[in-house]
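Deliverable D5.2: sample structural annotation.
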Amino acid sequence: MKICMIIPPKHNDEYVRRESKDASYSQQPFMPYTQPLHYALIKRDLDNVDISIIDAQLDNLTNEDVLKKLDEINPDIVITYLAWHCIENDRVVAETKYPTISMIVQQRVDQLEACEIYKLKSKYILYKEFELPLIEALKEFQASGKVEKTGGVIINENGNYRLTAYPGIYHLKDLPLPDFEAFRFSEYIKLREEISPTLRAKTAHLSTMKNCPFSCSFCGSSNDGSKTEYQTPAQVIEQLKYLNENYGISLFIFSCNIFTTNKKRAKAIAQGIIDANLKIKYSINDRVGNWDEEFAKLMARSGCYEVRCGVEAIDPIVQKVLSKPWDRDKLEEQFKIIHDAGIRVSTCFTTGVPGETRKSLDMNAKFISDVDADGFTTSPLFIMPSSPLYNKLKAENKLLTFEWHKYHELKELIYINDTYNNMEEILLAELYMKRKVYKYNMMRFDRGLKYIFKNLMKYIATFDVLKKITVFLLPKKMAASIKNILYFKQR
């Protein structure tokens, strides 16, 4: 059986990170992870298959180029990956004359709803789970030339969509090492090196868990009753070692929702890195709460240079809307433990939340300054499809559009917001909070003149005219080098 796997083209000349729950575009290509995993899984579990790969992003192909290559290959079946925030762009290579299994990533979105919204023409669309339904569907197609019984498959019957049955799953511990070589990781690195300094070019994103134990209202990975699963420490170390030894990758970003929820596993991974003598650095997402001095020192010794924590909000009223309660004092204590071990702390905050006030924004800014966050990001409330808040707004008829790509663009309100009338007001609130952080930091004379000067520069950069002048005057390579040094420097 001839199989063709497709990674769709760039969108508006930007690379699309299709596997990320947050959905993102970039001037820099993201090395694929899900596709190499599926390639290895097919090779392991199916006999008599010939797999071709069309990576339109890596080879800078247009949709027309992809379709031409597809005809040259003339496959029996196609596998393609659509980003939930980029369906209109990606669908072209999923709606061809060839039988196609489409995956709308990330996994927790309601693919059945996506089919109805976008009237997708793919013959088969996987639902909720990918690995086991993909393998079972391919086996059924290989045997009979069609897919009818495999669980977890939406079958397109002339524009009517039928879900066969709820999907079964492969446990993460039973999955193989992704076949990175098949997806030309060396060429990805070369392409990234043309854009970024070497250290940042040789970066790999690893996803080593599935689902999340928490239920944040806005998140597409919010717990829906599904069990949280993890790769074993041995699997994680095997991937780190393979990528480090074969591609010289020394910087890793764990894109797992929460790294230390299973503290025993996290400690085993850190100790495994040390025991394997891997000279790497890595960054993690975490909902801090399990950190103590001994654990923090272990993480630092293993190469953890950054903990990214989605605090989102300090005001209890806003926390309630986001279903993300925090104890401010506990957070400060945890961040201090992490800082004392020499690990950076980066925080993420959400603005534009219904019920938010200037006081809420001040509380956020004051917290960021008080904990001396090494970095912080802010973003207007980004409601992901199938999240609890999305479903709530949908039930209350408060969603203004079902075009998912607009959720990512953040150009207009996509739901009725009782606090803000338009996106411009939210962006102004976000800017107010950023400037407030820098103002608080400029008053921290105990942190030295260099610290105050750096925050003064950041404050000035929030004014577009001054920022454009600075960017124009500073050579690109110099700017990238400075950013690289600052970003990866441990405390």
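Annotation notes: Confidence is low (pLDDT under 50) at residues 485-491. The longest helix spans residues 423-442.
The annotation will be released with the project's public dataset once the embargo ends.
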